[in-house]
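Crash report, auto-generated. Payload:
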Amino acid sequence: MLMGTNLVNAQTPAAGATEEAPQVDWTGVSYYVLLFLLICVGVAVVGKILKIYDLTLKIQGKKGLRWNNVMGFICLAFLLAGLYGAYWSFTVQGSMTLPEAASIHGVKIDQMFTITTVLTMIVFFLTQILLFGFLFKYRHSEKRRAHFLPHNNTIEKIWTIVPAIVLTILVVFGFFTWQSIMDNTDAKGEVAAINIDITGHQFAWELRYPGKDGKLGPKDFKLTTAANKLGVDFKKKSSFDDLSADTMYLPVNRSVRLNIQAQDVIHSVYMPHFRVQLNAVPGLPTFFKFTPTITTAQMRTRLDDPKFEYLVYCNKICGGGHYNMQKVVRVVTEAEYQTWLSHQKPYLTDGLRKELHFAAAEPQQTVSQNRLALNN
Amino acid sequence: MSTLAVHDHGVAHHDEHGHEHHHNETFVSKYIFSMDHKMIAKQFLITGITMAVIAMILSILFRIQLAYPDKTFPLLTTLLGHFAPNGRISTEFYLSLVTIHGTIMVFFVLTAGLSGTFANLLIPLQIGARDMASPFMNMLSYWFFFLASVVMLSSFLVQKGPASGGWTIYPPLSALPKAMPGSGEGMTLWLISMVMFVASSLMGGINYVSTVLNMRTKGMDLWKMPLTIWALFLTAILGILAFPVLVAGIVLLIFDRSFGTSFYLSDIVLNGVQQPYEGGSPILFQHLFWFLGHPEVYIVIMPAMGISSEVMSVNSRKPIFGYHAMVYSLIGITVLSFIVWGHHMFVTGMNPFLGGVFMITTLIIAVPSAVKTFNWLATLWRGNIRFTPAMLFAIGMVSFFISGGLTGIFLGNAALDINLHDTYFVVAHFHLVMGSAAIFGMLAGVYHWFPKMFGKLMDEKLGYLHFWLTFIGAYLVFFPMHFMGLDGVPRRYYAFTEFASMQKWLTINTFITWAAIMAALAQVAFIYNFVVSIFAGKKTTQNPWQSNTLEWTTPVEHIHGNWPGEIPTVYRWPYDYSKPGAEEDFIPQTVPFSQTMSSNLPHDFEDNPAGLEELNRFTSTLKAEEKVK
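Recovered output after restart:
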C-alpha cells in the first residue's frame, strides 16, 4: 500500500523536469519529505497506542502484550509468505532466465546446474522451514524450560559427513566437467577448430578471421598503428590473408577456438547462451574452445522471437562504456558461413599497405584515432 | 567510585596496588584520544555506523540510476554537481558509486566497524581483563581508521571523482590514470586510504590476539571462552596474516602508477597509444588481492557468526549446540580460507588446472559452514526463545547465511562459474552471505550489548520494526537478482537499456530499487532508536538478558579497569543455560561448581577427576537419602 503510492508518485518530479534546463522540483522533493515525516508520525502513533493498550491490560490485572507470541506468529507468517514468494520467484522470474545451452559443453554445465539446484534447494527449504518453524514452536513461555542439550556427537558426525559426501560428489562431477571444458586438445574425429581472434579495447571488440591458410598471423603490440589496430606482424606470411569482420559468424556444430586478448584493460568475453566466458587480459592471451549447436535461425523459432540474436558482451568492469560493449554473434550453417567468409574484407587494407610501405621511414607514428567513437 | 581504578590505564592484571589515585580525565582524553577499550569500541561503532549510512546512500543513488535509466532527476545535479550532469548520474560516476559503496561496506563497516567495535568491547570484558594489551596502540588503531575514512570520503571532492574500478581495483584499469577518470587522483586517495586502513587493522589485530592469549582471568582457559571471543580471536589472526599481502599488492600498484614499473602491466595500447610496459602480469595483482580478499569475507562473517552464536544461546535459554564443533569449524574456516582465493579467478585466464584445485578446496570449506548452520538450528530446537531485537537479527543472520551460502556451492564450482561469474548471481550471493548476514550479526551485537556500552536499553518495539523492514527488504532486493544473473545480466552495468535481452529486467530493477529505499528508510528507525536511547533510554540493570558471560558482572557505570576490586574468577563454560537441577535458567561463569551441586553433570568434570569424585559422592548420598525416604 505504502509502496504502491510511492511507486505511482515517483514519476512526478522526473516527468515534470525538462531535459534542457534541469530545474529542481522542490515541491516534489518536499512532498516526499513530508510523506516520510507523516509515516514517522504514523509509526509513533501506532507505538503509543500499543503502549497504552499494553498499560490498560496491565491495569486490568492481565499480562501485558506478549511480544514473544506476536513475534512467533510473525515468524510463522514470514515463513509462509517467504515460501510462497520463493515459489513465485522461481516460477515467474525463473522462466525469464537464459534458454537452453547452445553449445556442447553448455549442455553439461546445465546438467550440473540442475543437479546442484535440486540439492541446494532441498537444503534451502528444509533449513528455512526448520529455522522459522522452531522459532514459532519454541517461542518463549513462562511455563516451560529449555531442554539442556549441549552436544550430541552422533548427530554432529552425521551432519558433518553427509554434507561432505554430497559436496564430494559435486566436486568430482564439477572437476571433470571443468577439465573437459578447458581441455585444449582437439578431440578424435573432430574437425580442426576454426581460429577466431577477438580483441577487446575500450569499448569495443575487434574480430579477426584467418584466411585460406586457416592460420592467424602473429601479433605484437608494438606494431599497433591507426591502420594496424591489432598490431599484426606482416613479416609472417600467414598474416596477409587474415580477414577482419564486424559480426561474429560461427558455423554450427564445428569446434571454434576463440583467441582472446585485450589491448588496454581487462575485459571479459561473455557469451552466456553458449556458456562461454573468459577474461581478456592485456599481455596474457587466452582461448576458449566450444562448439555451437543451435543456429540463430533455430533459436529464433524455438524462442518465438524473430529478433533474437546471440551476443558477445563485456563482463569485466573496463570503464565508462563497459555497459555497452556488445557484438552480434550469428550461428549459421556451414554453407552460409563460407559465403559470409568470402565476403569479408582483408585485414590488410589499402591504408595499411601504404602505412607499411612508409613504416621504414616513420617507425613511430602512433597518433590516437577516434577510438572513443567506436563506443556504440 | 573510581578510586580503585587501575593505574597505567588498566593494563595491570593485579589490582592490589596500594596507592589510590584519581584520574583527572579531560574531555579530550576521555572522548577523543581515549585509551579505554570501551570508549574506543564506541568510537569504532559510531564511525562504522556513519560510514554505513554514507555507503547506503551511495547504493540508493546508483539504484535510482538502475531503476530509471531514462529519467532525469534535477535534484541529483543539485546534490552531485558535475558528477550528475543534466539530472542523470554519469557513467563514470556510477562506477565510482559502486566502487566506493563496496569499499566502504566491506572494509570500513564490516571489517573495522564490526571487528573494531566488538573485539574492543568484548575481548577484555568477556575474558576478564582490565583493558587491551596495548591501549595506546589500540587508540592509534582507531585514529588510523578514522584518517583512512576521511581520506576515502575526501576522494568525492576530487575533480575527476573517486576511484571507479570496482572495489577489487584490478589493474590495468586502476593502474592507468588515463583509462578512466576515477583512475586518477581518486585512485591515489583510495590507495593511501587503504594503506592507512590496513595499518589500523593490523594494530587492532595484534592487540586482540595478544590480549586473548595473555590476559585471560583466572580459570578462563581457551575452552571456557565464549564463541564471540573465539570468533574475534580467529578473525584477528586471519587479518594479521592476510592484510599485509594486500599492502604488498597496493604498494606494487602505487609503483606501477607513479614510478613507471611494470609489475602488473604488459603489452598495453591505450586509446591507440602504445604504453612502455612489458613483462608484468595483471593476474599477479588478482592473486595478491584475493589472497587477502577471500580471507576478508571470513574476517567479515566470523565475528557475525560469533555474535549470533552468543545471542542465540542467551535468548534460546539453551547452551549453544556443539560448542566444540563450533570452535573447530571456526578454526577450519580460518585455515581453509587461505587456500580458496583462486575461486575468484576461475575465468581470468589462470591455469585451468589451478581452477580445479581451488574448486576442491572451496567446496571443502562449505562443510564447516554447514556444520555451523545445523548447530544453530539445533540450538533453537526445544529452546525457550525470547524475541529480543538482538535475537531477531541473529536469526536473520542465520537465514541469510543459509540463502547466500547455498549459492556459493554454484559459484565455487568452476564449471558453473563460467556462466555465472560477474553476473548479478554473484551480486545476490555475496550480498546475502557476507553483506546482509554480517550486517545483521553486527546489528544483533549492537542491540545485545547496547546496555553494556551505554548503560541504557534500546526500545524493543522500534527494534522489531527495524528488523522486519530490513529483513524483508533485503530479501526483496537480493532474491530476484539471482534470476537476473541466471539470465546473464552482468554486474556493474550502468544501464540495461542498450540490450534488448535485458530490458525485461527493467521493471524488476524498479521494484528492487523501491525495496532498497524501504530498507534504507527503515534504518532511520535504528538511528533514531540508537541516538535517543543513548540520552533518554531506560536505565539498564546489570545483567539485562540473564546472561552467563563475564561482561555482565561489571558495573553498569563504566569504570577504568572494568571491575572494581578483583577480577572475578571463571569456573565454568559460558553456556550453562536451563541446566536441569539449577534454580535459575542460567548459571554465570563466575559461579563455582561447589555452589551448584544439584545441577552438576559428570560432563562438567571431564578434565577434573577430583571434582568428578566429589560429584559421585554427592549423587550417591542423594540416592541414599532418596532410599531412606
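Post-recovery validation: The beta strands of chain B are 269-270, 273-274, 456-457, 538-539.
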